[in-house]
Design a protein that fits this description.
By secondary structure, this protein is of the alpha+beta class. It is 51% helix and 15% strand. It contains 22 helices and 20 strands. The protein has a five-stranded mixed β-sheet. Helix 2 links the parallel strand 3 and strand 4. Helix 2 crosses helix 7 and helix 8 crosses helix 9. The longest helix has 69 residues. The radius of gyration is 46 Å and the shape is elongated.
Length: 771
């Protein structure tokens, strides 16, 4: 009996799985929102359970004032390669070119970690952003994506005291395979972003996209989802400019309303926001809340009248049931367009239930056929296939139209789009005879499961074969997941399991072979592009070299005309030879400039020599002119000269042209005073500190100059000196280290000899006695 229950549960779970996958939909900014500020669509099951979908839109200014702060998250995981990477980076550059120069952008690369590519927020165009884009181009797409780290990095990027409008844009597939996000963790992350007033918009790109995560993220934070396309950059930039209002906890819902998500999502002025739930009463209803907007708190209110119950809204039953599981946290509801997509997905699930009911009826499993039909009718009372199956079950149980004993019921129809694989799988499955009691029931249950799994496997194989030419990696992943599903599906006949596994493995081998071919083609294209780029660079370099040599030759001719032969040789001609060492033109130009310069110098020397000879002979002739002895020259006594000389030496022994302050005079006097040194392996800095305290003067080390010669402040000093001046002691000690001292800026500097030679002072000495 347990096996029978497990089989029924597996079939039901499989049918529910189709519905869950179909509900992963996205709302996009391309859909036109309702023109009304509020709308309440309803559906009543007639059992006192009334369901609603409420659309709300605030009427406030369409743009947030002031410059914006935007965090741009770019997925750089392994899935973002080839055209996906080009599209993502192209969209990023398009948004940057659309933003105002007053806006500020922070660029973050997202894979296993969230790596900032800019130091804080920078201008959307400029050298800093250019450098960040170069870093992004240099990153190789590797690893998986961790959306938890990406969203936490987004929240940490904004300063708490900043009052500018905020926004975040994510470009990638949203597949957080590095660390899966649970419901509680996702709720905490979105709550943190909402508290920080950070709406997260996204532009999905990649071979596989987590539509549910990106849709739920946009809906819970007040963002939008923009499909990849020519207008994606413009739409994302416009989304950052729209006003976003964040409702507080004082939302007043009408009595009898149960609303999902339980926390009211943010409201945007460029689209409507939707919530779902159950209600009681006839209306009209009044909804009130206080929301934080760009200009401060705003009081919002809407009065809505329920629209008459419509069978087209029966999808709300399943949607609300799904929301009850986690409070609506994971529902990807953004705006009215996302509701339309949810309706389509759920209706597609209802159609799947109808097909399952038809297949169960075909295998003679009336209980499962009736159960699937009733579940489909509960979601869509007008589903024709489910109504037909329910009527057929009733007729068979009354004995009308029953299959004769021993005859197999009609085979289930093949899934659409699968005739080309009719030879791969037998979709009919085993058909037990009627009237075999419990064993027949178990067999029929296994037949239903086998039929469903066969259909799903065949669809996946067909789709994979169609994708192998463009996306073999994605097709391979889908096939691997399908193979794992076949291995883990319970209550599957071993023969059927082996058949499905063989078909899937053959398709996997084909996908791997195709993947290798695609990779080889890609590598060949890359090699061809690299060779073409290399040839282009060589031609460009040759052209630049020729142009540079031509410009240098023109410069050389100009210098030659000006008579600057030496400069023409050393500058223009030499640089031309270095730029084109194999070109004979610069070599000939160098030799010509050198020979012309030498000839010019030789002619100048000849003229100077001739003039010098004539001038020297003139001085000789002039020296022959005599002078008279009257009146005679009378000189004072020697004692007078000695007194004058002593007095002049005392006053003008040397004159320092620079003004010497009190501190510098104190240092000069200290250099003449006696000192003592008794040091053994003492660091240089400690020696300087001792002399500073001993002589009461300021002594500093020129650390920059000392580091250039490899001498540090910890250099050991061993010296024993007594009874000599501080000047002599310093010279003896510093000479061993190839150092010296200078007096500058009222400080005695210990520096290198080369540095001291650049700091000269001017003194004047009397030389009258030498004349």
């Amino acid at each position: 009996m347990s096996k029978y229950l497990l089989g029924r549960s597996a079939a039901a779970a499989l049918a529910a799985g189709f519905l869950i996958v179909g509900m992963m939909v996205l709302g996009t900014v391309g859909a036109e929102p309702s023109g009304k500020a509020a709308r309440l669509d309803c559906f009543s099951r007639g059992e006192g359970a009334d369901y609603f979908a409420l659309s709300l839109k605030p009427e406030t200014p369409t743009s947030a004032p002031g410059p914006r702060e935007i965090v741009f998250l770019v997925d750089t995981s392994a899935s973002q390669a080839g055209d996906y990477r080009s599209d993502g980076i192209g969209t990023l550059k398009g948004v940057l070119s659309t933003l105002d120069q007053e806006d500020r952008v922070k660029l973050i690369a997202v894979d296993l970690n969230a790596v900032p590519l800019t130091e804080g927020f920078v201008a959307p165009s400029g050298p800093k952003m250019t450098a960040a884009l170069a870093k992004l181009d240099a990153r190789v797409p590797l690893g998986a994506t961790d959306m938890k780290k990406a969203l936490n990095a987004t929240a940490d990027s904004f300063s708490a005291d900043s009052k500018n409008p905020r926004a975040a844009i994510y470009v990638g597939d949203g597949m957080s395979t590095a660390e899966l996000l649970g419901t509680e963790e996702f709720e905490k992350l979105t709550g943190r972003l909402v508290d920080g007033r950070i709406p997260v918009s996204s532009c999905p790109v990649g071979p596989r996209i987590d539509e549910q995560l990106l849709g739920a993220l946009a809906g819970k934070t007040g963002g939008v989802v923009v499909p990849m396309g020519p207008r994606a950059a413009t739409q994302l930039a416009a989304a950052t400019a729209a006003s976003v209002l964040y409702p507080g906890k004082d939302v007043v819902w009408p009595k009898g309303f149960t609303v999902y998500p339980t926390r009211m999502p943010p409201l945007r002025t460029d689209r409507d926001s939707v919530v779902i739930g159950t209600y009681a009463g006839k209306g009209p209803y009044e909804i009130k809340m206080t929301a934080a907007g760009p200009g401060g708190p705003e009081n919002l209110s809407w009065t809505v009248q329920p629209v008459e119950s419509n069978e087209d809204n029966n999808y709300l039953v399943e949607l609300v049931d799904r929301a009850k599981v986690d409070g609506g946290v994971s529902l990807p509801l953004i705006d009215s367009s996302s509701l339309d997509q949810a309706r389509q997905a759920i209706n597609a699930g209802v159609d799947d239930l109808g097909r399952l009911a038809r297949q169960a009826l075909a295998t003679g499993n009336l209980d499962d056929a009736l159960r699937f039909a009733n579940e489909a009718i509960g979601r869509d009372p007008r589903n024709p296939e489910a109504l037909a199956v329910k009527g057929a079950v009733a007729k068979r149980r009354r004995g009308e139209g029953a299959q004769p004993d021993g005859e197999a019921p009609p085979a289930a129809p093949a899934a659409p789009g699968t005739p080309e694989l009719a030879g791969d799988l037998d979709l009919r499955g085993p058909m037990p005879a009627a009237g075999e009691g419990f064993a027949a029931a178990v067999g029929r249950e296994e037949a239903v499961i086998a039929t469903v799994i066969k259909t799903q496997v065949q669809n996946v194989v067909n789709q994979a074969r169609g994708r192998m030419g463009a996306d073999p990696e994605g097709a391979l992943q889908e096939l691997k997941l399908t193979l794992e599903m076949v291995r883990q599906t319970p209550d599957l006949n071993p023969d059927v399991r082996d058949q499905l596994r063989d078909v899937t493995e053959r398709a996997i081998r084909t996908a791997r072979r195709r993947q290798t071919e695609v990779e080889q083609d890609r590598q060949q294209r890359q090699e061809n592009l690299a060779r073409d780029k290399e040839r282009m660079l060589i031609n460009e370099d040759l052209s630049r070299t020729q142009q540079k040599v031509r410009q240098l030759m023109e410069r050389l001719e100009s210098l030659m005309e000006e008579g600057r032969y030496r400069f023409a040789e050393e500058a223009a001609a030499k640089e031309a030879m270095e730029a084109a060492p194999d070109n004979p033109v610069p070599v000939l130009a160098t030799l010509q400039a050198r020979q012309t310069g030498y000839l010019h110098d030789a002619m100048a020397l000849r003229v100077a020599r001739q003039k010098g000879v004539v001038d020297a002979l003139y001085e000789v002739e002039r020296s022959h002119v005599p002078f008279p002895g009257e009146p005679p020259i009378v000189y004072p006594e020697a004692s007078v000269w000695q007194e004058l000389t002593a007095r002049r030496r005392e006053k003008y022994s040397s004159m320092h042209l620079a003004t010497q302050g009190t501190a510098e005079k104190k240092i000069a006097d200290a250099l003449k005073s006696p000192t003592q040194m008794e040091f053994i392996e003492t660091p240089l800095q400690d020696v300087i500190d001792f002399l500073k305290d001993y002589h009461q003067i300021e002594i500093q080390l020129d650390n920059r100059a000392l580091e250039e010669v490899g001498t540090g402040s910890d250099t050991p000093i061993t010296k024993n000196l007594k009874g000599i001046s501080l000047r002599s002691a310093l010279r003896l000690m510093l000479r061993e280290l190839e150092l010296t001292y200078v007096i500058r800026d009222e400080v005695l500097y210990i520096t290198t000899q080369e540095e001291a030679e650049t700091q000269l002072t001017t003194k004047v000495y009397p030389v009258a006695d030498l004349v």
